[in-house]
Amino acid sequence: MTSLSGLQSGDFTDIDVLYTINLNGDAGSNNQVIKSDGENSSWVDPHDLLDLEDLTAGTGIAYTSGTTYDGGVARTITTSNVPNSALTNSTISGVSLGSNLANLTEGTNITFSSGTTYNGSSAITISSTDTNTIYSAGNGLDLTGTTFSADLKAGSGLAITSTEIDLVDIPNSALANDDITIGSTSIALGASSTSVAGITSFTMSDGASTTLTGSTYTNDPTTASYIDITQDTNIVSPYFLHDVYDPSSLTKTALTTSYVAIFSNNLSNAFTAKATTCCIELLIFNYSGTANRWLYLRLNDDYGSEWSGGTYGGGYGTGTRNTERFVNYTDETDRNPVRQTWYLQGLTIGTSYTINPAAKTSATTNSIYAGGSYPACILRGYYLPTSSG
Predict the structure, then answer these.
(1) CA-CA distance, 236 to 242, in Å (whole number)?
(2) Which runs of consecutive H residues, i.e. helices, occur in the chain?
(3) For the chain, which domains are there?
(4) 240 neighbors 274 (Cβ within 8 angstroms)
(5) What is the helix (H) or strand (E) element at residue 263, kind and residue range?
(6) For the segment 202-237, what is each residue's pLDDT rounded down to a tens digit?
(7) What is the pLDDT of residues 321-332, one digit of tens each?
(8) Are the C-beta atoms of 202 and 188 separated by less than 8 Å?
(9) pTM of the predicted model, to two decimals?
């Protein structure tokens, strides 16, 4: 190796050292550098040139060795027991780190693997009990979501009315008994029958007025056949009109040669025809105070006109003959009961007619008596069989 000993001081632009620089025979240690204090030079560690202040481990900081660091020796820094005050966020849900959380208590259908509360201090397992009952609609029910409803069979008569099950228009097919038997005739409910057979008796209820009504249809009356009405409990009248004038004391109508309604219209009657023909019968008592007197009778309408031509409840257009009749002749002073019958025809069924008996005489001193000790005056009417005429 070439030696540089004996070199003089000088200014050099470049010094090329191939191997080692010795300072007073000291080649230095690995990674050391030459340091000059202005007079002498020596080998030193680089960190000695920096002269760093000691870095001391504070709270929560520790070195793997020693308690300070000045850059001279490699150190490893660790953290431990960092206080809450050193943290930006040092709470969880308002509870400081390091403290226990508020107790979490088991609720309904919740269980803990240990204990009945949990505050985060130890690990536990939380379980829940499935209480979700699964419903299914049974017979007669429907289930939509969580709502049950009645499954109403169509045509059964069942319906929902104001949130309640109701019966509406129950069909006969849904009934155990869907007909009624009268006599030997079976009639379905809701149906009708124009005839009933096999009845052996028919009894009205007691204690109340009862009525048996036939057809009211015009020109189509109810016909009864083979009816036995001979029992003494039956009340049967052949008359559709029966009017009696019988005052307690004698009342008379003094006749003139002009027609006048007898007994001041007390025997005027109206009727609604139920047949096309009828007879009107008048029973009176004639008192003639002088011989040779004729008694005339007729029927008037409601206006006092002769009935067959009368237009006020009269028989105009019916074809009934004039009702004026000679009914009694007295050849001396006589007292006679008189019975007169008129035949009315061409009546219109359903039409109302008025009859009012009237009388006159061929001369005065001829009267009609009623009441007291004299016979009652009676006006009555009855229909004729359809074969009459």
Answers:
(1) 13
(2) 46-50
(3) 150-181 (no CATH), 241-383 (2.60.120)
(4) yes
(5) none
(6) 677 776 778 777 776 656 667 777 777 767 777 777
(7) 999 999 999 999
(8) no
(9) 0.50
